[in-house]
Design brief:
- This protein has 399 residues and is an alpha/beta fold.
- It has 2 domains: 245 residues, Type I PLP-dependent aspartate aminotransferase-like (Major domain) (Aspartate Aminotransferase, domain 2), CATH 3.40.640; 136 residues, Aspartate Aminotransferase, domain 1 (Alpha-Beta Complex), CATH 3.90.1150.
- The chain has 12 helices and 14 strands.
- The longest helix is centred in the middle third of the chain and has 32 residues.
- It starts with 16 loop residues before the first helix and ends with a helix.
- 47% of the residues are buried.
- The structure holds pyridoxal-5'-phosphate (PLP).
- The site of pyridoxal-5'-phosphate has 15 residues, from helix 3 and helix 4.
């Protein structure tokens, strides 16, 4: 019998009841704007920031309208200007080069290794070109952060971490987002917490935090924050930092607060699913599992494997045969960007020299989402289907 999977790869879990009730309370009182508070009231947004700062272990936290907005704000706070070059990953998603381009700055792409992390040797050669690295922990893969930070510190390159896929993850015991100058997170539906849209920015630097708060559109109400620096930090900057509105609102904050409280438990559930998939895929002929380093604490909300050096037609064949059995895989190597997949050469506003070693890796990356609505049994079934189709295609090729 040919097994089929019938679940939905884009279906997330419901919002926790506590979040639904808190959101209804906000709608009943009508004070959705974060600075619209009754006397002595602390807004949901300010509480969320305080709770996320505690979760991340940061001095300061600002909640904003999206992950992309958090990244652009981080770059602005660091003084990136139009025309400046900003280093970033060749293997990432469109909001990352988009955040750089939104300032009129210019992305300089750094290659990707077979571990799906930034190529630190390539980075080393390019450090002289920019003052800032927007480092994307794409699909949750974290590079050797100790080596990366040593290199960037030595070159005086500031690091902004894109933690859209690593909220809850860590390198060498240090949470993702807490290595560089600023960490940015997304609360968009497909990430680790879900408010539809939303994001966070965390830092320990009072100057950067104050700039970010002003940039987000705090008017002169920054004293209503609980996770912002003291008002003296605003003295120098409040008259010459533009307002580029991108605030979080109390409705989304109300939805998010219980999810932050549940995050550690949710991450364990993701990892149970990831491990089941990884075990099921290991030793499939022609398929390379991405081994995760011992220093990496992962959150397995998606899984990747490589069909390295396979012909495009054979990869397409595997993807369509898996799709016919209900398993939705994404191929990052597709010559034309499809849905969320993309390659650095499809961002034509940021031309790059070709990187042959990275192109070889990108051409082989197959990706799958792991929503928490999948059971462990679902994951075991999905792995059997992929294994079956990849082995058959591999046999056809070697026949
Ligand atoms: C989703 C995502 C972001 C941020 O996205 P928003 O939709 O703006 O919240 C940033 N980087 C990566 C790699 C992402 O996937």
């Amino acid at each position: 019998m040919t097994e089929r999977f019938t679940g939905t790869f884009t279906q997330q879990e419901a919002i926790p009841e506590a979040g639904i009730e808190a959101a209804i309370a906000v709608m009943r009182h009508g004070r959705l704007h974060r600075y619209n508070t009754a006397p002595d009231e602390v807004s949901e947004t300010a509480l969320l920031e305080q709770e996320f700062a505690e979760y991340a272990g940061s001095q300061y936290c600002l909640a904003v309208a999206s992950g992309g907005y958090a990244m652009a704000t981080a770059l602005r706070a660091l003084g990136v200007k139009a025309g400046d070059k900003v280093l970033s990953n060749a293997f990432t998603l469109a909001p990352v080069p988009g955040a750089i381009a939104s300032l009129g700055a210019v992305p300089v792409f750094v290659g990707v290794t077979e571990s799906l992390t930034i190529d630190l040797d390539d980075l080393e050669g390019k450090l002289g070109e920019a003052r800032v690295l927007l480092l994307s922990h794409m699909r949750g893969h974290i590079c050797d952060m100790d080596r990366l930070m040593a290199m960037c510190d030595a070159a005086d390159v500031k690091v902004v971490e894109d933690c859209a896929h690593t909220m809850g993850a860590a390198w060498n015991g240090v949470p993702s987002g807490r290595h560089g100058a600023i960490g940015c997170y997304s609360c968009q539906t497909y990430k680790h917490v879900n408010s539809g849209e939303g994001g966070f920015l965390v830092t320990d630097d009072p100057h950067l935090a104050a700039k970010a708060v002003m940039l987000s559109g705090s008017y002169m109400l920054f004293e209503r924050h609980l996770a912002a620096p003291p008002k003296e930090a605003f003295d120098d900057i409040k008259y010459d930092t533009p307002n580029i509105s991108g605030r979080m609102d109390n409705l989304r904050a109300a939805i998010l607060r219980p999810q932050i409280a549940d995050l550690a438990a949710q991450c364990r559930r993701w990892n149970d699913r990831y491990t089941t998939l990884e075990d099921g895929l290991r030793d499939t002929p022609g398929l390379t599992v991405i081994d995760r380093p011992a220093k990496e604490t992962i959150v397995g909300s998606s899984i990747q494997f490589l069909l390295l050096d396979w012909a495009a037609s054979a990869i397409r064949d595997v993807i369509s045969r898996c799709a016919a059995r209900g398993v939705e895989l994404k191929w990052f190597g597709a010559p034309e960007p499809v849905a969320f997949t993309s390659r650095y050469d499809s961002w034509r506003y940021a031309p790059s020299k070709p990187m042959a070693a990275s192109d070889r890796v990108l051409a082989g990356i197959v990706d799958m989402r792991v929503p928490l609505t999948f059971s462990i049994e679902d994951c075991a079934l999905i792995a059997r289907i992929i294994r079956d189709e990849v082995s058959r295609a591999h046999n056809r090729m070697s026949a």
